[in-house]
Amino acid sequence: MNLLARAAGFVVIGLGMVATIAGLALPWTVVGARHPDLVTIAGIAFLGPLLSALCMAYARTEPRRSRHIATVAGVAGAAAAVIATALARLVEPSAGIGLGGPLTVVGSVALVLGWAALVVTGAGALPGRGWRAWTAVAAVVVVLMLAGGLAVDWAREGRFVDATTAGAAPATQAVVTSMPFTGVELVGVRGDLAVLRASDGIRAIWLGSGATAWQYLRSDLPSQAAGLVDDGVVVAFATDDGVLVTGLETATGAQRFSQRYQSGKIATVHAAGRTAVLSGVGAGAGDLLGIDARNGAQRWRWTPARDGAACDVTDLAGSAETVAVALRCRAQGVDDVAVGLAAESGVERWSWHAIQRGNTELRVYFTESGFVTLTGPAPQRATYMDAGTGSVGARHDAAGALAVPAGASLIYASSDGDQPHLAAVEARTGASKWKVGLAGLGGYQPIAGAAADGQAYVLWRNPGGALRLLTVSAADGSTKEERAVACATRCPQASIAASGSHAVIATREEKATQLYLSIT
User: Which parts of the chain span the membrane according to its record (predicted)?
Assistant: First the structure.
């Protein structure tokens, strides 16, 4: 048994020397590929692999002092491990934990373990050529290598992540009314789950019970934006030189990928088929990124610029094949432009310059038949464009300040005139489909809307802060339900998302860290 332990000790020492040298050569940070200073590198190299090599050579000439030599080498290795650990802990997580630091620590620890085995066994020969003995040694070494690999992975990523996956939905079914959840944004609704973004990551909530289905939280990086793309959730975390983008399965929360990209501040994540489009907003929005939502591969990068100058990004919408980006460019006066990009390649397919100009920024929506832009002062001018070619079709005056895409139509909500009303317009032709007055909502303003499964949900607020949700048929505008929405105070921030037969209203106080959800 001593011979096996001695043989394993020598092999582990050899691997520790290689790992330590490799760790010192590799970058310790992802951003800037930074290393420790040369004096520190020399000190670790001397205490670790160099002194171990000298001690192995010396032990062969003085076998009677092998335990003393192993003790000296083990203590030196422990000193190297302490120094490497202290330096690795100084690396800022936002800069990215490179492979170098954790690998150096693991290599130094391996030296200590190897020399400890030689202290215990003392002098002696190694096993002969019998395969059984060396098989046992190999098994020990493989186990230690796996443990070292897990330790490196934990040091780089695992210690910062608190992630769970979803099990079966709870049997308890209850309507959630103004229940508080940690979060700053309602990302969306998919099936029986509401997805919330918080400053530390993503949580999914069962609509039937309000229980947490799964979560992906990080203690090292703040989240910037998130979106539902294809059948997954894509969330962007801020780093020193860009973003860390993580893809998760919506149904289970299982991680698909987690990769870093150079980018400016990300404010929105939109879906364009399987492509997640990450974008900033306003002035200095920076490049748009197109990322495969299933494996994290960067498909394209596009700079919003015209005539040699950067443009503001004012809105974005996506179809399965095209991304429509609304821009405000100032290289030659104020110019509002909509640009169509291929979802898979980012190549510009078409561009359209707004005829009506004004202070109101260009907006763009996707209906199942194509894109619709809104521009100009009230009543805004709506223009239909083919998603693939950008060819311009019918135009119409927007019938309200709030537009909600619903199938092939746009449903407008307005509080102007004698009483609030809803109106539906066929996007492709501009033809009016229906218009209904809302006598019971005098004094209310439309603030948010969503549509799903043939129903439209419009959220209204009065000057006192009270909220009411109106559910109507997207086909004819007939009222399905009208009810008050509970709100903690004045609820200055409110949003709504819908999927299937569910609508979720999220309210939040300004700069608060809790969302109050009401679920239909």
Answer: 7-26, 38-59, 71-91, 103-126, 133-152
Q: State the Rg of the chain over Cα.
A: 30
- Say if residues 328 and 362 touch (Cβ distance below 8 Å): yes
Rounded to an integer, the average pLDDT of 446-472 is 91
Cα 388 from chain centre? 28
Paired with 244 in beta bridges are 237, 260
257: exposed, middle or buried (Cβ count in 10 Å: 0-12, 13-18, 19+): middle
pTM of the model: 0.87
142 CB neighbour count, 10 Å cutoff = 10
CA triple 224-228-232, angle to 5 deg: 110
- Cα 395 off chain centre by: 37
Sign of the Cα torsion 101, 105, 106, 111 reads: positive
Distance CA 273, CA 500 (A): 19
Contact between 498 and 189 under an 8 Å Cβ cutoff? The reply is: yes
Q: How far apart are CA 288 and CA 283, in angstroms?
A: 13
Arithmetic mean of pLDDT over the chain? 89
What SS3 string covers 62-102? CHHHHHHHHHHHHHHHHHHHHHHHHHHHCCCHHHCECCHHH
Own/partner long-range contacts of 470-475 (Cβ < 8 Å, ≥24 apart)? 470/422, 470/438, 470/441, 471/503, 471/520, 472/411, 472/422, 472/436, 474/406, 474/407, 474/409, 474/411, 474/424
Tally Cβ neighbours within 10 Å of residue 217.
17
Give me the residues paired with residue 469 across strands.
459, 483
pLDDT 10s digits, 25-47: 999 999 888 999 999 999 999 99
Say what angle helices 66-89 and 100-121 make with each other, to 10 degrees.
160
The SS3 of residue 363 is: strand
CB of 242 closer than 8 Å to CB of 260: yes
* DSSP class per residue in 380-444: PEEEEE-TTT--EEEEEE-SSSEEEEETTEEEEEE--SSS-EEEEEETTT--EEEEEE-GGGTT-
56 has pLDDT over 80: yes
